[in-house]
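Data card: per-record layout.
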Amino acid sequence: MGLFGSSGIRGVVNKELTPELATEIGLAVGSTAPTAVIGMDTRTTGPMVEAAVMSGLMACGCEVHTAGMVTTPTLAEAARDLDCGVMITASHNPSEYNGVKLWNPDGMGFGVEQSARIERLIESKKFALKTWDRVGHSHPLHHAIERHADRILAGVGSAKLKVVVDCGNGPAFNITPKVLQRMGCRVVTINSNPDGRFPGRNPEPVEENLGDLKRAVVSMGADMGIAHDGDADRMVAVDDKGQYLGADQLLCLFALSYAKKKVVVTVDASMVVDDVLDAKAKRVRVGDVFVSEEVKRSKADFGGEPSGTWIFPDQTYCPDGILAAARLCEIASKKKLSEARRRVPVYPTMRSSVPFGNKGRAKVLKALDMELRAVEVEELLTLDGYRLQFESGWGLVRASGTEPKIRIVAEARERSMAEWIMVMLTEKVKRCVA
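The structure for this 434-residue chain is written out next.
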């Protein structure tokens, strides 16, 4: 059936994600969970999708606690005392998308087996519907944001910094500035009005979308800038000189500060991780669930992926952009980010994607397999897509877990090699989707 991507269920509303599907998701979850907490980001379709999911949950007797408009990590925190969390969000996707992501009480997203169980229930329609006198009820959940903020602040120190926070018109507006202020920071916010049309910028916090943040940091003489995606499970940064702090650099800065023995990264993480860290790096499939699972299984100190999701297991297995912002403030309070980042070299890295439109996913993947296995490489890893290892660089080709596109990453110590890898792989992918 393939409803779940690498980060929950997502789709264009009323096209791929319909009220009928949302209700069935609720029916499936309600058939397995006696209690749940539900929340949503700022998307205009959030209330509609939430209502449909709640209907399904309560029809199966689930007692539903409503957290309202919250970040994903706030929702995950609220699930600690219940059987699961249900977040209505499409994260960094554009405004026409929405989705559902499911959370365990320990902050970890539903794993492969749990997701497969939900899919089987939806496919079979064998829901545990209750009689009229045993349906569930809804209960407003108060103080979820305060509880999340208190938990973060209990695990971080003070920071006397000036910080610009770009909330991306998402639910981070009601927690990140408050947490940093309580740490001792002076906070300036941009895009802090909640608006699911995302008028300030695209909700994906990549460098090309953060021009306003970079300019604000420089013009205001701030120590750093923070940017979130649409639900604040991600966090990226700008240093005190207004320079974008690449996610691979940020990953290494976190690991250098908080990891002693082992870190977990995804297959698209830079090879600088292996060059800089004393801690052993373990690579897993792309997706915060796979990072969290391995962090928990191997008792790693830290986990992250270049998309801007960071796992600090001493507090939660949920990628928490607000916690990451607080911990980056800790780092910046000891040394300016423009100086701290010098510890981490930057290798030429290129990222691209090729949409495959209406061409079938299975057909594209079959063609890719034939093309990429024919390339002469030192090593071919198929843990998640195809990671092609060359003498002085590597390339990764994998299907997006959330959108109909093939993602391509190329990195090498020399730019000419990275360019060659990117051009070669792009040509092969385009042949497969033509």
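Known properties of this structure: The chain has three domains: 9-142, 146-343, 349-433. The mean pLDDT is 95.

See the next section for split statistics.
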